[in-house]
Design brief:
It is built from four helices and twelve strands; from the N terminus they run ααααββββββββββββ. By secondary structure, the chain is of the alpha+beta class. It has two domains: 18-114, no CATH class; 118-249, Ribbon (Umud Fragment, subunit A). Strand 11 (233-242) and strand 12 form a beta hairpin. The radius of gyration is 27 Å and the shape is elongated.
């Protein structure tokens, strides 16, 4: 018997595992072990799908860990079979876990933490969002975008939409709100507290934002509007992830 054969009996090994380790179940499939291959690949694909769907939650993190363990088990099993009867079980498991973690999963998690950082608002009802933390490295936030504000704001809301930027003219008159002479549908004031007329220009280095949600939750922000320092903007909110029924992409 060839000592490097993946099994004592059966078809010969088609060659070194190599890149096959990157796909759970692929080495086993190429060695004509379809049942094992399908269980490994199916478990991994299902877990990865759930982890992607539930990204930013405890459940998502747990299922992602299961997907990693399934991938590591597939790779360790392939290494052990390929090197049979050497290595045993412990060395392939450690090698596969460390290699996949360093080459695949650690870089993927770093990228996800930069471009899809999950945040959850403390206010009720609970809301979850995904943030691109590097969106404004090369440019500043612009009108219409949804942004994540500095966490040191305490109890004040941390997700807002930009209504006007530095130097833009803001006007309230005749029950209409305008930005640079363009009518904005939302009102910055509650009906009972609206002034007869208001004109101002947003100062340099500042933006006018609206918090969009029920302003009654934010007692410190009358009407749900506020002028904030642009330095308070920590990233661009590009998706609403929770509640699940209200998931959607944001500008």
């Amino acid at each position: 018997m060839d000592p490097r054969s993946p099994r004592e009996a059966g078809p010969a090994r088609p060659g070194p595992v190599g890149h096959r380790l990157l796909i759970p179940g692929y080495p086993q499939w190429s060695w004509e072990q379809p049942e094992r291959a399908l269980v490994l690949f199916g478990s991994y694909a299902a877990a990865l799908s759930v982890a992607f769907f539930a990204w930013g939650t405890t459940v998502g993190l747990g299922v992602l860990a299961f997907a990693f363990l399934t991938h590591a088990f597939s790779a360790a099993d392939a290494i052990r079979q390929y090197a049979f009867p050497g290595f045993g079980r412990l060395v392939p498991a450690i090698t596969a876990s460390a290699g996949l973690g360093a080459v695949c999963y650690a870089p993927a998690l770093v990228m996800a933490s930069v471009y899809a950082w999950p945040i959850a608002l403390d206010e009720q009802p609970r809301e979850g969002y995904l943030v691109n933390r590097w969106a404004y490295l090369a440019r500043g936030p612009v009108t219409g975008e949804t942004v994540w504000l500095r966490s040191t704001r305490g109890a004040r809301p941390k997700v807002a939409r930009i209504v006007a930027g530095p130097g833009q003219r803001v006007e309230w008159s005749g029950d209409q709100f305008r930005v640079d002479d363009q009518v904005v549908e939302e009102s910055p004031f509650r009906v009972a507290g609206s002034p007869a007329e208001l004109k101002l220009t947003i100062p340099e280095g500042h933006i006018l934002v609206t918090f969009g949600a029920d302003p009654s939750r934010y007692q410190a922000v009358p009407g749900g509007w506020e002028i904030v320092d642009r330095g308070d903007v920590r990233g661009k909110v590009w998706a609403r992830s929770y509640p699940i029924r209200d998931r959607r992409l944001l500008r």
